[in-house]
Amino acid sequence: MADVTGTTGTLVLAGTPIGDVADAPPRLAAELERADVVAAEDTRRLRRLTQALGVHTSGRVVSYFEGNESARTPELVEALTGGARVLLVTDAGMPSVSDPGYRLVAAAVEQDIRVTAVPGPSAVLTALALSGLPVDRFCFEGFLPRKAGERLSRLRENTDERRTMVFFEAPHRLDDTLAAMAEVFGADRRAAVCRELTKTYEEVKRGPLGELAVWAADGVRGEITVVVQGAPDTGPQELDAEELVRRVRVREEAGERRKEAIAAVAADAGLPKREVFDAVVAAKNAEKAEGTRKQP
């Protein structure tokens, strides 16, 4: 029960099975029974999980999902400052990783409340391990934007990413996403589509992005994780001014300030910042001159 001595409580982030309920960590059952408050992304799924584990939650159960995350966070922080042990669970995997949780963790940290975790299954790590692609360095990109133009823009930000990349995607958008990846990264770039991980119909489809896009065009069901090999390390590249300007603009469109974008492009290309800066200025002046000539 909640601590009545005035000591702050503890926020526990608990990983839940991504498919097979037998993968639930033993500590999850203990925390479900011990918690004063259980915040669940879907209370119905929580009920099914506790039934499968054969445990009973004696604490208060509240919903905590994307739609009420902002409004409910202060309530949970209040419980924590009052000494409660609050357990946060999502539908599958670790809270705050493309799931609700970040706001609550940040708010708890701000109040010097202890935050701990019950490690559990992860679609990101499971897909990486099964992909057959390099896993010594990787980055997680989550879900891509739904709109085609925004999706292409986000992918172009990763054109030169050398780490293996992991994405989540909805099954009805998978074919468009793989086609966009083939366009940006190249049809021959190796990738793996991991479907229904740890479930009955688990499937891992490996191959070049172009072939995977064709395969997905017929329709794919289930929860999807896509793993894409990073860009090859070709060493220092001889880039012309046009390419330098293009890379700076990609970074600017992604939200970087021009100064930082120029510095990053120069570092990647192994060039002095001044050389990239001069290319950007020259391109800008050329655009102005072209615009002047077109005026009546």
TrEMBL record:
Single Gene Ontology MF annotation: rRNA (cytosine-2'-O-)-methyltransferase activity
Keywords: Cytoplasm, Methyltransferase, rRNA processing, S-adenosyl-L-methionine, Transferase
Location (main, coarse): cytoplasm
The reaction(s) this protein catalyses: cytidine(1402) in 16S rRNA + S-adenosyl-L-methionine = 2'-O-methylcytidine(1402) in 16S rRNA + S-adenosyl-L-homocysteine + H(+)
Domain Tetrapyrrole methylase as annotated: residue spans: 10-213
Subcellular location(s) per record: Cytoplasm
Recorded superkingdom: Bacteria
One Pfam family from the record: TP_methylase
InterPro entries membership: 4pyrrol_Mease, 4pyrrol_Methylase_sf, 4pyrrole_Mease_sub1, 4pyrrole_Mease_sub2, rRNA_ssu_MeTfrase_I
Keyword Cytoplasm set for record: yes
Record flagged with keyword Transferase: yes
Transmembrane segments: none
EC number(s) reported in the record: 2.1.1.198
GO cellular component: cytoplasm
Family: Belongs to the methyltransferase superfamily. RsmI family.
NCBIfam families: 16S rRNA (cytidine(1402)-2'-O)-methyltransferase (TIGR00096)
HAMAP family tied to this protein: 16SrRNA_methyltr_I (MF_01877)
Annotated function: Catalyzes the 2'-O-methylation of the ribose of cytidine 1402 (C1402) in 16S rRNA.
Protein name, entry field: Ribosomal RNA small subunit methyltransferase I
The organism's taxonomic lineage, starting at the top: Bacteria, Bacillati, Actinomycetota, Actinomycetes, Kitasatosporales
